Amino acid sequence: MLKSVAIVTGSSSGIGKATAIRLSHDFSAVVLAARSATELGEVAEQVRANGAEPLAIDLDLMALTAAETVVGRTLAKFGRIDALHGARRLTLRAWEALKSAKGAVVLMAGNTAEVPTASAAAIGVINAAIVALAKTLAGRGLADNIRVNSVSPGLVMTGRRLSMIEKWASTHNVSLDEAKQALLVPAGIARYGEPRDIAELIAFLVSPAAEWMTGTQLRIDGGEVKSV
Q1: Got the DSSP string for 71-138?
Q2: SS3 annotation, 198-218
Q3: What is the pLDDT of residues 1-35, one digit of tens each?
Q4: Which tens digit of pLDDT belongs to each residue from 47-97?
Q5: Cα(1)–Cα(78) distance, integer angstroms
């Protein structure tokens, strides 16, 4: 059995991929869960190159059986779960294993949890719910030695965001660079975030350095939201 195991959801691309690769420097094994088998295989190679043992699980995390599958396969192969970058069903299913390992959970929300807009009302409600869920789970985790925090990124240049900017550029008949700048200006920040920026924060939250941190929402947005 290995001494430290992290599960990372959405690990075939974007923030999930960056997080899996970053955690492969700190954990003995990294479990990769996402829908794209080909992309998961590529990430698994990078995880292995960094010295960690990968376990790629190709599935739709929205499926009702996904949490059971991911946790079951992880425990069958590695026997423990020390860290989890996931959501509610997966966290609850992994709870006993996390308790045994005195582990850590990070849930992903977004800036709209604090600064909702009319154009993104639905996602704002979802993000606020995720923040509240993390705080609730953190309260439960106090007695079980499980730390639960949430991360709220701002404008991160993921593949999805790039696709949105490309469509905006086409609609407004401007170049991609012009579109990037036009959409960046209203945020009042110097640059878009990169997935690795978020991955570094997640790595800190699941590390021993953050062992006295739980129930916290951490915003990482380049200064877009200027408040405490």
Answers
A1: HHHHHHHHS---EEE--HHHHHHHHHHHHHHT-EEEEE--GGGTS--GGGHHHHHHHHHHHHHHHHHH
A2: HHHHHHHHCCHHHCCCCCCEE
A3: 468 999 999 999 999 999 999 999 999 999 999 99
A4: 999 999 999 999 999 999 999 999 999 999 999 999 999 889 999 999 999
A5: 5
Cα 112 to Cα 10, 15, 19, 20, 44: the distances in Å are 20, 17, 22, 25, 32
172/168 Cα distance (integer angstroms): 6
Token pair listed for 213: 């941190």
The region, left, alpha or beta by phi > 0 then psi within -120 to 50, assigned to residue 10 is: left
Domains and CATH numbers, the chain: 5-156+194-220 (3.40.50.720), 157-192 (no CATH)
